[in-house]
Design goal:
alpha+beta; Rossmann fold; Dna Ligase, domain 1; D-amino Acid Aminotransferase, Chain A, domain 1; 5-stranded parallel sheet; 18 strands; binds adenosine monophosphate
Length: about 375
């Protein structure tokens, strides 16, 4: 089968690296000729509203999926008229607008921080007054990795944030003083089979994911049960097919949903070596209606993100248990260029391996594997 993918970044690249051994083929559509998935599949180059190129992608694909959520919904619908597209366009629509997304969570009974939309200065002031400080203001669309958002603690912060962001439609949210951040990755196939990966503890710095700790002992069984129940509500409401990720804050020992991604996710990269079946392979299996693979972890696992530039290969590869991934991208400040999965047999070994390797990863020098 040929799987068409909207987007040709590292997520698409890792999808292909998982699907090629199953005998599947990949064709990526991306605005850039330099997209890093070009090494692992065919490319259709064009902007996402180029109907000629979208039709070409549809013609060459048996099924189409996407690897990032800012694809215009109209494009997913245009494709849906010509070829099967998973996950459904509705999931894309909901997840690319933070106000629609939080409203959707609320409508299906998934808890969120208090929130409200603001397009004018009057609405912004009214929402800040209603929600109270501290608050967080974000652009409704196109925010990622902490871009397009600001924390509001004082009136001066509100002035600055409005000046910086007020040109775009906004959402104001209550600031959540969370104990930690977590995500759940789940997958549902065209046959309705559903599987969950373990809850992952995530650490962000400067708005970017730095490290993920699947099955962290700080996230107990009851949080896992809650996360699975919330994810099930979302999967059902969207008649979902493919991998879905929901990110949560943990506050007072309970989950508060922050956002969802209708795709494979950075906090699931550990699953390539750290789970029996990776999130990438399971996404491919789900799209094609194949039986889903076991999502259980194999060993004790942590993931470190390479941000800005790749860490030194020689030093890292000299360590048994380090699995290094480079995405074939140029270095640039704040850019995700690779990651490393650390896998050991015993938990204590993971602590030690992490302590030896974290120095090579930006803003990870003081991180520890959770106990
Ligand atoms: P987001 O783009 O929504 O994923 O936000 C990026 C990061 O900003 C999150 O991972 C949190 O660390 C922080 N953040 C976002 N929203 C809030 C909030 N309402 N309260 C506290 N921190 C937040």
């Amino acid at each position: 089968m040929t799987i068409g993918v909207l987007g040709g970044g590292q997520l698409g690249r890792m999808l292909a690296l998982a699907g090629l051994p199953l005998g599947e083929r990949f064709v990526f559509m991306d605005p850039s000729k330099e997209a890093c998935a070009r090494h692992v599949g065919d490319m259709v180059t064009g902007s996402y509203d180029d109907v000629g190129q979208l039709a070409e992608l549809a013609r060459r694909s048996d099924v189409v999926t996407y690897e990032f959520e800012n694809v215009p919904v109209a494009c997913a619908r245009f494709l849906s008229d010509r070829v099967t597209v998973y996950p459904p366009a509705r999931a894309l629509e909901v997840s690319q607008d933070r106000f629609l997304e939080k409203s959707f969570f609320e409508s299906v009974g998934v808890p969120t921080a208090r929130f409200g939309p603001a397009e004018t200065r009057e609405e912004f002031d009214a929402e800040v007054a209603r929600i109270g400080l501290p608050a967080v203001v974000k652009t409704r669309r196109f925010g990622y990795d902490g871009k397009g958002q600001a924390v509001l603690r004082t009136q001066a912060d509100c002035e600055k944030a409005w000046a910086a962001l007020g040109a775009a439609p906004l959402i104001v949210e209550a600031f959540v003083p969370f104990e930690r951040e977590a995500s759940i990755i789940c997958v549902r196939s065209t046959k309705g089979e559903t599987r969950f990966y373990p809850l992952v503890e995530n650490v962000h710095r400067a708005g970017i994911l730095r490290a993920s700790f699947p099955a962290s002992p700080r996230l107990g069984e009851s949080l896992t049960r809650d996360a699975q129940a919330f994810a099930t509500k979302v999967l059902d409401a969207l008649s979902y097919v493919g991998v879905l990720t929901i990110e949560f804050f943990v506050k007072d020992g309970a989950l508060v949903a922050n956002e969802m991604a209708p795709r494979v996710h950075n906090s699931g990269h550990y699953s390539i070596e750290g789970a029996e079946t990776s999130q990438f392979e399971n996404h491919v299996r789900a799209l094609l209606g194949l039986p889903l693979g076991d999502t259980r972890m194999v060993g004790e696992v942590a993931m470190l993100n390479a941000i800005g530039k790749m860490p030194p290969k020689k030093e890292l590869l000299a360590e048994a248990g380090v699995h290094l991934h480079g995405y074939g991208k140029d270095s640039a400040p704040g850019r995700k260029v690779g990651h490393a999965t650390l896998r050991t047999k015993a938990r204590e070994e993971l602590h030690a391996l992490f302590a030896r390797t974290r120095q090579w990863f930006e803003l990870a020098e003081d991180l520890e594997v959770p106990r």
